[in-house]
Amino acid sequence: MPNMTYMAAIAEATREEMERDESVYLMGEDIRASVYGASAGLFEIFGEDRVIDTPLSENGFFGAAIGSSLVGQRPIVETVTSFFWVGMDQMISQAAKMRYMFGGQAKLPVTWRARMFYARGAAAHHSDRNYNIFMSTPGLKVICPTNPYDAKGLMKTAVRDNNPCLIFEDGIAISSRGEVPANEDLPGGELLVPFGEARIVREGTDCTIVGIAGGVAHAEDAAKILEGEGISCEIIDPRTLVPLDKQTILTSVEKTGRLVVVDPAHEVCSVASEISSIVAQEAFWSLQAPIIKVASAQVNVPYSPALEPLVYPTPERVIEAVRETMS
Amino acid sequence: MPPDKDLLLQMLERMWRIRIFEETVIEIHSSGELQGPAHPYIGQEAVAVGACAALKDTDYIAGNHRSHGHPIAKGGDLGGAMAELLGKSGGYCKGKGGSMHLADFSIGILGESGIVASSVPIATGAALASKQQGKDFISMVFFGDGASNQGACHESMNMASLWSLPVIFLCENNQYAITTSYKNSVSVDHISDRAPAYNMPGVLVDGQDAIAVYEATVHAVERARAGEGPTLIECMTYRFEDHSLGLDRVRDNPYRSDEEVDEWRQRDPIPIHEEAITSTGVVTAEDCAEIQARVRVDVAAALEFARNSPYPEAKELFEDMWAE
């Protein structure tokens, strides 16, 4: 089975979808030069109408992508999570609302792919983990692939979905490598990962850890160490936040009786907040200990290497939280 | 090329459809039957009608908050529009959009919008799609003097020109963004003066003259269909009513003088068009009177349809969120 990087998996998904459907096209800043590594060679294959380098105009070209999707195109927009803010008017006021406002007339098959880098000294303007903001906005699908397999399979599903989809490419996950099956080895000949189906990363009996985006890797690191202490963790990666697979989380908590949610977003109104609320409401009588959120501190991201690591979840913080639920 | 007799009459009819529709909207708002905000298009009819007369059904339009004139000018159904304003299930959007979100994709009406300038990138994107798909559909966006200052507008014009997109930027300069005069918000004498900065033609037109708007638009349409790119057309016009129904505080603000309003009311686009088409003998005064009478019946029927249309059921609240 081929072993590839996360970005190679995204690139493969992009090329396959562009080959399959000529209404799929790619737009963004510096994509012909493939500055972020997911679009190398596509301009040479698909040409200027389908691989479009845009001016630095997020609100403008996000809107153009949306407008084109209303009349049959399926754009893939490449950007960075922090630049979502620049194009928010089009994302929220148009993409998220148009179908509903127009009584179901509109289809909006737009896929945004946003690199979400943080923890690398990029300071407050380039370290946004903002999927939680979009999760609370009706009308957008929110996708957080954490490994190359899911990156490819979820990306292909997103491109075929007739709704606006936002893919958050976590900086920790981007550096991962993993096995991605070749198409000829797959039933149906292609890799499609459905939305709304969580992945049980590791089975366990004592404590459920739900990891969001890069939080999954921290949970895995923590679980290995906790195993040595005789604590068995079950790790769940929801993979998509909208739609959210509540049931897999609830079933796990009913088994373990404990929940820690690891979420790189700022802690207030984070995905961890929402999942904690769901579990408190729907699985309260299964809980043997308070739920613990391990999320980012409610402070802007500082530049200094002495300060930045204090903001985010770490495996150590996850270990501490699990131990606390067990005490 | 001047419009033929049928088109001249259709333009008159559509102006009356907008005018009488809006007069009816004002009436049912005063009586309390219409709850939500609505922005009357009265005074600006020649702009939407003249511009849409140059389009085909397959062409796209997108609009703004002053939102009833554009779809009616494009040939939209009056009953569906009125039902939408009343929040009824027989509305264009099943009552989910209301006044500012009229859309009928079946005839290229890609939606009005409540966020000023937010339709400008949308129409630009529809034009991009046309080009990518090898279709000759063109796209037109209506926006105001206020919207012309939004970044979305500038970004779209730059992209459209850069990529030679078949889009027409149709600026309705009705001179006031609520109470702010364009003279206090636009750094050039005319919004069309900005066109050279985007390397596209900028045309200034009398927006009270439907035939002048039509002719300017025909030229822009030909250019767009030939793959030569976008055009910015600025139509000087005036809204005869206040910004929005129900915004009484604006009415109390003396941002326009009575003399100015009266002066512009003398330039009512409907009599101007009637004069133009009867003076050449192409059309008679009787033809015009007959059109007006017919439209009154049509608008009354539209209101009746809207009143008889049921409200959406509670179970519809969660419908139309997601496409399959």
Description:
The complex is a heterodimer of chains A (327) and B (324). By secondary structure, chain A is an alpha/beta fold. Chain A folds into 2 domains: 3-189, 3-Layer(aba) Sandwich (Rossmann fold), CATH 3.40.50.970; 199-326, Rossmann fold (3-Layer(aba) Sandwich). Chain A is built from 13 helices and 14 strands. Chain A has helices spanning 6-20, 42-46, 58-70, 81-84, 88-95, 98-101, 131-135, 148-160, 171-174, 215-228, 246-256, 271-282, 315-326, and strands spanning 3-5, 24-28, 51-53, 74-80, 111-116, 141-143, 165-170, 177-179, 199-202, 207-211, 233-237, 240-242, 259-266, 292-296. With 324 residues, chain B is of the alpha/beta class. Chain B has one domain: Rossmann fold (3-Layer(aba) Sandwich), CATH 3.40.50.970. Chain B contains 11 helices and 7 strands. Chain B has a 5-stranded parallel sheet, with helices on both faces. Chain B has a two-stranded antiparallel ribbon with strand order 4-5. At the A-B interface, α3, α5 and α6 of A face α5 and α6 of B.
CATH superfamily of the largest domain in chain A: Thiamin diphosphate (ThDP)-binding fold, Pyr/PP domains
Residues in β-strands, percent of chain B: 5-15%
Going by helix content, strand content and strand pairing, the class of chain B is alpha/beta
Number of domains of chain A: 2
Low-confidence stretches of chain A: none
What's the N-to-C terminus distance of chain A? Answer: 43 Å
Radius of gyration of chain A, CA atoms, in whole angstroms: 20 Å
Helical percentage of chain B: 40-55%
Q: Can you identify the CATH class of chain B?
A: Alpha Beta
Portion in beta strands of chain A:
15-25%
CATH structural architecture of the largest domain in chain A:
3-Layer(aba) Sandwich
Query: For the CA atoms, what is the radius of gyration of chain B?
Result: 19 Å
CATH class placement of the largest domain in chain A: Alpha Beta
What is the CATH architecture assignment of chain B? 3-Layer(aba) Sandwich
* Average pLDDT level of chain A: 97
Name the overall outline of chain A. Answer: globular
Q: If helices are DSSP runs of H or I spanning 4 or more residues, what is the number of helices of chain B? A: 11
Give the spatial strand order of the biggest sheet of chain B.
Answer: 1-2-3-7-6
Q: Estimate the mean pLDDT confidence of chain B.
A: 96
User: For the report, how would you describe the main beta sheet of chain A?
Assistant: 7 strands, mixed
